[in-house]
């Protein structure tokens, strides 16, 4: 599946491609960025190229957008993996020097809107480490609710970790979008 190009006021979200590996290697080799990821920081560009290969596979059943500021340089990505009819999992990563600028929120909001309005999902969820305060805050700002606490769910580079599942329903997103419009209207 090829991700359609999506835009926001600041961003162009386009299909992640193999050549993005060089731009994303600094992110995927950054121990701070990768701390809460299911795998540790990448040791070399070849590891990043292999990892990007999975995310760029058009027949893997997911859509993966490179996050760019319109200059075609990948700063991270957003991925939607359809898990069953009407339900998708959301994943994301962003270069550390771009944290705190609203880029991830803007990119995720556009992909969520696409998932609900254009694909027709009824539910989108995300899986995050209970200690990943930044990711939890982002999901909650976007209207997600914590639905589950899965104990000892993941074996990662930092040990066996619990997982929080955050979910968002199409109707909740629509209501959340209407609230945001009223605040900014």
From TrEMBL:
It comes from the Bacteria. PROSITE patterns: GNAT. InterPro entries: Acyl_CoA_acyltransferase, GNAT_dom, N-acetyltransferase. Residues 11-171 form the N-acetyltransferase domain. PANTHER family: GNAT FAMILY, PUTATIVE (AFU_ORTHOLOGUE AFUA_3G00765)-RELATED-RELATED. This is GNAT family N-acetyltransferase.
């Amino acid at each position: 599946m090829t991700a359609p190009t999506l835009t926001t006021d600041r961003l162009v979200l386009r299909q992640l491609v193999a050549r993005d590996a060089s731009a994303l290697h600094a992110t995927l080799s950054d121990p701070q960025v990768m701390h809460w990821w299911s795998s540790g920081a990448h040791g070399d560009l070849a590891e990043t190229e292999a990892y990007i290969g999975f995310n760029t596979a058009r027949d893997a059943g997911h859509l993966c957008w490179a996050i760019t500021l319109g200059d075609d340089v990948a700063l991270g990505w957003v991925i939607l993996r359809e898990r069953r009819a009407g339900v998708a999992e959301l994943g994301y990563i962003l270069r550390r020097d771009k944290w705190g600028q609203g880029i991830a929120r803007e990119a995720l909001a556009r992909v969520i809107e696409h998932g609900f309005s254009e694909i027709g999902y009824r539910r989108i969820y995300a899986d995050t480490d209970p200690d990943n305060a930044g990711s939890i805050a982002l999901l909650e700002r976007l209207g997600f609710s914590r639905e589950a606490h899965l104990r000892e769910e993941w074996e990662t580079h930092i040990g066996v970790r619990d997982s929080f599942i955050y979910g968002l329903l199409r109707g909740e997103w629509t209501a959340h979008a209407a609230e945001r419009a009223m605040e900014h209207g």
